[in-house]
Amino acid sequence: MSSMLPPPAGDPKDTKNLMAAIILSLLVIVGWQYFYEKPRQEQIRAAQTQQQLAAATAGTAPEQVPVLPEASSPALVTTPLSRTEAIKATPRVSIQTGNLHGSINLRGGRFDDLTLVRYRETVDPESPEIVLLSPAGSEAPYYAELGWRAGAGVVVPDAETLWQADKFTLSAGETVTLSWDNGAGLRFERKISLDDQYLFTITQSVHNSTATAVNLHGYGLIARTFDPAYSSLYLQHEGPIAVFDGQLVEHDYNEVAQDKLIKQDSTGGWLGFTDKYWLVALVPEQTAQLSTRTLHVPQVSDQRFQMDYLAQATLLAPGQSQSVTTHLFAGAKEVRALDRYQSDLKIPHFDLAIDFGWFYFLTKPFFYALDLLSGWLGSFALGILAFTVLLKLALFKLADHSYVSMAKMKNVMPRLQEIRETYANDTARQSQEMMALYKKEGINPASGCWPILIQIPIFFALYKVLYVSIEMRHAPFYGWIRDMSAMDPSNLFTLFGLLSWTPPSGLHIGIFPLLMGLTMWLQMKMSPPPTDPTQRMIIGFMPILLTVSLSHMAAGLVIYWTWSNILSILQQFIINRRMKVRML
What we know:
The protein has 584 residues and is of the alpha+beta class. Helices cover 38% and strands 24% of the residues. The strands form 3 sheets. It has a 9-stranded antiparallel β-sheet, with no helix packed on it.
């Protein structure tokens, strides 16, 4: 990042004000979550509680979807099967597309077996495909289920229902039909189609051939078993996510585990679970009136979480049929795919499944710029380098003004020092003489502050893009960087591979973090140093502190910062030479 070191001013007060401005800017960004987002989420939860109390008082709260019935049955608390064994234990419809492998469980009609064809566990192209969904009874169940609820005495399909399929393979662009008859006059049917990416479209139909009307509630749920030791990431939301009534709602696992049950009503929207790169979400009809829940079911050795919805009851008269269409997204959070579904299916804020953060207005355009450049240049690595050049050009005038002011400041440093020594005991006269010198030389002592403050949101926005975009996952740079979303694997403390030992995780500084620290040091040496000893010491330690702190960050971000610093050094070098300023 260019000019991240604060340009020193002649007056110690100016230097302190500059440092305070930078620190306050960072505090605003970091404190936003605590002082704004957290209270806002608490208000949402309070509103949910009021809705629950009002519904309970009015007696209008509908009967809800059963909560993980297999989890509460002692007979089913057994040693988990392997994922492969659990899949083979039930009849299935195979899923084979260019993006998804897996199957639909005909026992219960669940979506409980999916792997992602184009995404692997490691950078090795022969490593296993990413496992997204797994069946109940396996070690880590994660599945989606759709169905109907009805009043007492009406038999509807449940988790044990064995559906009949008209074929046993589902490919992209095709449809499979599942059917089941309750033997008492109700016939249920599900038409399941799959596009060429990650979206299932499920149309559920019921035909009533009885002599009486039947009330039916459509429902959908996503349930998963998750490690109770999970701790949510500050920079990335992972866990329950939804858009209810046009508002994004996020809960972390620890919050749900503590509250046990969170309810909210909504018209349309969507809900599911998000991971850093993957999403499983149900999208009901956008006109449906829904009662939704986010809940936690403690187990002996693990934790189960569920998000579900229950639609308002509709009356199915004798001889009539009823249909409802639901979409299930299960796949990678690719920006263009989510945008297309949001646009084509009118899914509200579906792109917010990717946590672009507070600087959404910057992060998403940054992503599209990087993606476009990467497509043109053939790699994400070259895209980052080209994007950095474009950013430098966009900020060129601002940075140029800052560097000119810094060069002038460096030229007058001996005279400033002379003023301080001459009027060491007269602070007012010292400030007066320094301001007169600034005016005479055309220097604005605080001119270097604005480039830094402007680049703070740019830095955080770009960090979010490189951190959350799946397009960065396993994207190689050159040489030893095989995954720019992971930290630089080289390590100073192993002499970059010459020593065969594994140092503690805290002792890891790669080549690119060292290069970044070196470029920051060069920038510091090319800038006028503060005359205040304390400020000079703090600024002198900044390259070391940032080298250590960024050594565990994504290599792509460190590469961007190093390359940006090199461009800044080049610009500063040209200006200093033009103005005949001593370089170091």
